[in-house]
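Justification of computing resources. Each target in the renewal requires a structure prediction run like the one illustrated here; the chain below, 591 residues long, is used simply to show the kind of job we budget for.
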Amino acid sequence: MKQFFKFVFASMVGFILAGVVLLIIVIGIIAGLVDGNSEKTVDVTPNSVLQIKLNYPITERTPHNPLAALGFLGVEGEKTMGLNDILANIKKAKKDSNIKGIFLDESILQTGEATTEEIRNALIDFKKTGKFIVAYSEIYTQGFYYLASVADKVYINPKGLFDFKGFNSKITFLKGTLDKLGIEAQIIKVGTYKSAVEPFFLTKMSDANRLQVNSYLGSLYDHFLTGISQSRKISKDSLFAIANDLKIREPEDALKYHLVDGLKYKDEILDDLKKRAGIDAGDDLKTVELSEYGTSESAKEDKKETSKNNIAIVYASGDIVGGEGDDNSIGSERISKALRKAREDDKVKAVVFRINSPGGSSLASDVMWREVMLTKKVKPIIVSMGDVAASGGYYIACAADSIIAEPNTITGSIGIFAVLPNMQKFFTDKLGMTFDGVKTGKYADLGDLTRPLSPEEKAILQNQVNRGYDNFTKAVATGRNKTQAYINSIGQGRVWTGEQAVKIGLVDRLGNINDAIASAAKKAHIKKYNIVAYPDQKSFLNKFGLGGDQLKMHFVKSELGDNFKYYQQIKGVTMMMRTPQARMPYDIEIN
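Resulting structure tokens:
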């Protein structure tokens, strides 16, 4: 028996050692492939067409995922790009004599309104060179059509689908579910419009929430129609009537009402692109994908250093949490370090704080607000708002020298709330569980989810939330040079679009991230500068290591598919139940 155990133990040790060696070899192979792939240069020949197909989630920065192109261990081989590289590559193509035009290929945009706006404006700027843009799709969503409407020619497949029916926004209410489970959501909040908690205790929208949703949705839709009206030379009233009466039900209808320029199959589009690029009909069309264009020689030339002065872009994207966070969340410690590093670097002459966040922890927001205040005393700091910079996302912005947003950025939502579940009935009635214990103080078990809050405990928590709201409105009043009473009047948790926020003084002007960079340079009195990005993105091995969040989330997402958003919402709810939140009313989804 002793020999048997020796044999088993030796086998186990050998298996483990072999596994470790194999893992090292695999990592080495991957590293070699990644290095080889990173050195690959795309050859852009004369008369080429830049192909843009946006069928992936667009983040603020291109993620560091070298395995995406390799399809290793089930990680998708899909090439993705961040907004930073999308805009940079379109700008490079504008100056590249080898690029004759852009082909906007069928895309299902998976991004917010402001991100789409930034790409659209980059395409409008591209057209100033006289180069062409041709758009084609079998299915036009409203988001992709808004982007494609700037093209010289917009085509649709003769049997395709064209969605043009107006905007709608829907909220999922959970009260009925919680009632069935015997769970009571105990709500503590400040703000008439702070409706993040409504799904937990209502079955439909409150009058105040309906008012604000009608307001910002109407503003977004008006901007949407205005953009298409200017590009397609169709009056806004006509566009409204077309959508309102659902006049476009077949591709022929889109042509009839001049929203597209023709019904064509893909082969006809390719022939059209050849003519525009000056390529003979018998030759192949020369295209370069947007994701590969950044590795071309012309792109590399564009990256050469031009100055000893730097402008730092500090990216803050995702929910606001305490601690380090990651590339998909805003960790107060990580972002504070980035702001501090930029502030203390003598080469950095100004900072652009790029915010794309619905908010989150009010404490973490205050920690980062402090760093913005300190940075402002040393060098210019300009905020550039992405799709959303609301609640905690606005808190961390309000101390900056200037705030720039897109017309369709979602912002405001100045308010605080907390949610504490009372699960006593769930445990007792559904699971048959009861609880008993002892405590050394009256409030020692404050926040215990196995019982309801007492009136005294509710009063304590309400005072904490009130104090958080007072701090929030004071910070905004100081940063925006307004009275606290005025901020309270436009606060109360109300959501505004960027266009509306300019009118009420929460935002200084409308513009994109490049406008923010130009503003920072002007305020720093520099004309030539390099762009440096903070914080450092997580390394490949950090994210892909055993048990790494990226790998775990990849498999969760692949299993849940379109339902992944509900998983994220549930994770968000659990976060809400830990600490007071300065967060958006809910995850706004516009269809």
